Amino acid sequence: MPLGVAAIVLACYIAVVASHLASGGDVRDYIFLGTRYIEQSHASPAIRIDPHYHYLTNRHGYDGQFYYYIAADPVRARYYVDWNSYGRQAAAYRYGRILYPLLARTLTLGQSSWVPSTLLVVNLLGVALGTLAVAAWILRFGLPTWLALVYSFYPGVALGVLRDLADPLAFSFVAAAVFLLSFGGRYRLVWSVALFALAGLTRETTLLVPLLYALWRLVHRDWRSSTILGLGSAAPFLLWKLWLLVWLGSFALPHKVAPVLPFSGIAEEWHWRAADEIQMLGVVLPSLLIAAVALAAWLRKSRSPEILVLIANVIVFVIVLNPTSYVDIYGSARMAIGVPLFALFSLPTLLTRVRRPVWIVFAVCVALWAATLL
């Protein structure tokens, strides 16, 4: 049953966290805190160096720290962000993914010291929600619900949960939205649009999904639902960005544009390191294998919006992905979360035309993802 699979996933992640804490770890370890950006300002009493905590030795930390700063002090966190490729627009860029830190702050009930714990709790609940949605979808088509574990323990999802990043929550909203769009009853369009909008406010790259669903319906002359899907899903994010323009004076458009040549992103970051080989085997190769099967099914006229989204995710978030996301597996695997997710959503359609190749490719991809995670 879907609930059982979701409960198993939640229990596994809780066990990992509990083991870390029981061995003397700190819940703040999942934020991957550096000291560089904390020392950038003294504007916030909630964001300061704790002399009793051992910060990362590289001082830079990782992206989870910016969600932490925003959750701890939503107004003054803008003084503690990195500049990277966004320069002075970095604050608007970080605040653009507002929902994850906002939910974490809401759960603290005003106690900023609880933020490290609530960031983790939100993601744990998020991955359980995503698992539930995928398992429920698979069950509708008579497939074993344990296949949803492929999404739950995909490296990008696992790394996102254990590094306090917004990606697992964002794609869990997407998974729930896709399920409700097909099986949500009378108000399925309303519920799915609401969840797509929440996903967009969590991570803007997920808006590719509702826009493609809107395009699919537009091509099939369903003008009304196409308009609602496209505008309804994107409007809250656009309105939020307008507010950031007023408040912070920026739309946070990157200075570096994503490459247009296939694989130029990973080629630019390739240094013949083990880390590069892991990305090739754990992200690029499985995505290309799945895309090949999806394209074969499409050419055989076995088509669905899920297959369209799957192919688009491979193109946008693997083949022409920006070099900055190929610095390490943490970036590239997170960007490609949509690939295993929509491989699972596409599975019922794919099996109608290319059954044996699908299972073979799927097994190979699962093995590669598992090896990467381990």
Strand and helix map with partners:
Blueprint lengths: L1 H21 L41 H9 L17 H6 L3 H10 L6 H26 L8 H4 L2 H7 L5 H17 L4 H15 L5 H12 L3 H26 L15 H6 L4 H26 L5 H15 L9 H7 L2 H13 L4 H19 L1
Question: Can you walk through the features of this model?
Answer:
The chain has 17 helices and no strands. With 374 residues, it is mostly helical.
Entry summary:
The two termini are 27 Å apart. The protein is 64% helix and 0% strand. Helix 2 crosses helix 4 (99-108), helix 5 packs parallel to helix 8 and helix 7 packs across helix 15.
How far the N terminus sits from the C terminus, by CA atoms, comes to: 27 Å
Strand content: under 5%
The proportion of residues forming helix, as a percent range, comes to 55-70%
Characterize the overall form: globular
Mean pLDDT, all residues? 93
One letter per element, helices H and strands E, the order comes to HHHHHHHHHHHHHHHHH
Unreliable parts = none
Rg, alpha carbons? 20 Å
Q: What structural class is derived from the secondary structure elements?
A: mainly alpha
Q: What is the β-strand count?
A: 0
Number of helices: 17
Most strands sheet: none
